[in-house]
Amino acid sequence: VQLVESGGGLVQPGGSLTLSCAASGFQFGNTAMSWVRQAPGQELEWISVVNFGGGIIYEADSVKGRFTISRDNRKNTLYLQMNSLKPEDTALYYCARVITWTASRREYDYRGQGTQVTVSS
Predict the structure, then answer these.
(1) Is 86 helix (H, G, I), strand (E, B) or coil?
(2) pLDDT for position 78
(3) Cβ neighbours for 25, distance < 8 A, ≥ 6 positions apart
(4) How far apart are CA 16 and CA 49, in angstroms?
(5) What are φ and ψ of residue 85, in 5° steps?
(6) Mind listing the pLDDT tens digit for each residue in 68-77?
(7) Low-confidence residues of the chain, pLDDT below 50?
(8) Spatial CA neighbour of 51 closest among 24, 78, 18
(9) What is the SS3 string spanning 26-70?
(10) CA–CA dist 98, 51 (Å, integer)
């Protein structure tokens, strides 16, 4: 399994970025996928989860209305469109393969190396 994120960078508050995650080594189209992030000194935060067909099954309150997860199963690629970025969105962003998603249990088994997003003026 390999997950490779790209698209991070430095952006001003209010700006936009689109992250991509190229997946290989498994049946991407059969698997729920997610974006998670971790800021320095903070716990890992689930941002958004998409099912195998592209339906969004979770969005964190902190990003609702600003971030949109999507996938292209023909290209084995996961995306995160991020708009209206805030300084508190600064973090290392990872894509992750979801293995369990229930009301009481959320797990992934693989994640990429991450791409840094820094929101600052």
Answers:
(1) coil
(2) 98
(3) 1, 2
(4) 20
(5) -65, 145
(6) 999 999 999 9
(7) none
(8) 78
(9) CCHHHCCEEEEEECCCCCCEEEEEECCCCCEEEECCCCCCCEEEE
(10) 9
Phi, psi of 55 (to 5 degrees): -75, 135
Q: What separation, in Å, do the N-terminal and C-terminal C-alpha atoms of the chain show?
A: 37
CA-to-CA distance for 39 and 60, rounded, in angstroms? 15
* Residue 12 token pair: 């001003």
Greatest Cα pair distance, the chain, in angstroms, is 41
Structure token digits, residue 5: 């994120």
Length of the chain: 121
CB-hemisphere CA count at 13 Å for 108? 23
For residue 65 the two structure tokens come to 């209305």
Residue type, 56: I
Pair 5, 20: CB distance under 8 Å: yes
**Are the C-beta atoms of residues 28 and 21 closer than 8 Å to each other?**
no
CA-based torsion, 68, 71, 72, 75: positive or negative: positive
